[in-house]
Amino acid sequence: MTEERRAHDLPEGLPPTPDIDIDRLKATLLKLAEFGYDDSVNAVSRLGFGEADMAARRWLMELMEAEGFSARMDGAGNVYGRLGPKEKASVTMGSHLDSVPSSGIFDGALGVITALEILRTFKAAGIEPNWPLELVATSEEEGRFGGMLGAQAISGDVTPEFLMGAHDADGNRLADAMTAAGLPPLGALEARRPPSSMRAFIELHIEQGPVLDTVGKTIGVVESISGVWKWIIHLRGKADHAGTAPMDMRSDAFMGLADFAHAIPRIIDEHGTDKSRLTVGKVELKPGNPHTIPGEAIFTLVGRDSDAQVMRELQDACNRSLSAIARRHGLRFEYEQVSWLDPMDCSGRITDLFDTLAARRGLSYQRMPSGAGHDTQFLTRITDAGMIFVPSVGGVSHAPDELTHWEDIETGAQLLADAAWILAHEPG
Questions:
Q1: Which of the chain's termini has less CB crowding within 10 Å, N or C?
Q2: What CATH number is associated with residue 244?
Q3: 241 and 368 within one domain
Q4: What NCBIfam families does this protein map onto (predicted)?
């Protein structure tokens, strides 16, 4: 991209956006990938508030302080870095540091390290913006304990009851995990940010889906973010001998689970939309003996859609289906709703800005919804918030073979830098 072309991306009289250093960004992202990396499966596991996750947060703060940025961690485990005075409202960028088990290196982490690269680039340019630039690396976005704790704490959407009562699918309590990480659980209530403290929030993320890669677009400008709900379901029957119990006299909890899994396509056809998703993601059978009929099936169910009413209708349909299946197999059905995240629209002001900047750079881009949940959907509650996607090769994410090409990362990072440059130089 020529300097002449790039100068037209900015308001008259404002210098062009400084160029990010993709090699430096790449090296830092690969260094972050060492936290929680398991070479036996070539994957990263940084579970929220686990040892690898907290070590990565400490490393990030030390790195930012060493490079001359102010750094801190709030009571929810969110890590902040800032370029500019703390008393002024910030243009904030970032994403999350935690991961699902056996993940790739880009999900969430790319947005955090891109924000760091933009701070570095702007600091090196030596130009004092009107508004401070801020990085945030949110905590527990992947929903180990339900929800998106870090972003919800920032927006004021956590309660003492949730902090003290939440647990993961294995029964580990959020309060215990935070305490072990050196964070008093109720301290997360103090992480709330008033709307006056943040002028905008922008996030770069891999798409985690196949659309951009399939249609050959470089940038996705996100218009809306899907809502998400999560249940932990128990189907309880009767454990019995696998050889002596007749097939028609069993209370087999696994058969109930299998019947429900088979019903999912029908439920979506009848009560959902083309944006609806229902996923059984984690299953445990008890007692777990090859020669014993499962007496209990414990599993997670995650539902998604861009319409809250559709989400409620899907829940009702799942409840009815599971109740009928339980009666048919002589089972007891119980569920716990771990989380409910409303679908949200991104800020029109920010999406329009991304559109304008992408067009002026001559990039191939399109507006699109996000089927996955993101920190941005909670930050929309307190500020103008928006996000852009870069392609995921084959649409793969939450897996070791998650991949985004470095040239696409460079394009997305520079576009985010363009937006940050303009937002940070707005009059006020």
A1: C
A2: 3.30.70.360
A3: no
A4: hydantase (TIGR01879), PRK09290.1-5 (NF006771)
329 is in an annotated binding site: no
179 and 285 in a single domain? The answer is: no
| Domain count of the fold of the chain | 2
Q: Is the pLDDT of residue 8 over 50?
A: no
Range of the domain at 253: 233-341
Q: Is 313 annotated in some ligand binding site? A: no
The response to whether 262 counts as a known ligand-binding position is no
Any idea how long the chain is? 428
205 annotated binding-site participant? yes
Res. 11 pLDDT band, cuts 50 70 90: low
User: Rounded distance, CA 94 to CA 79, Å?
Assistant: 10
Is the CB of residue 76 less than 8 Å from the CB of residue 98? no
pTM value is: 0.89
Judge if 348 and 408 occupy the same domain: yes
Domain co-membership, 145 together with 46: yes
Q: Is 241 annotated as a binding residue?
A: no
Do residues 73 and 180 share a domain?
A: yes
289/402 same-domain check: no
pLDDT at residue 3 is higher than 70 = no
| Phi, psi (rounded to 5 degrees) for 274 | -70, -10
- Residue 7 in this model has a pLDDT that exceeds 60: no
Tens digit of each residue's pLDDT (9 = 90 or more) over 60-71: 999 999 999 999
Examine the fold and report which residue of 341, 360, 377 is the final residue of a domain before the chain moves on: 341
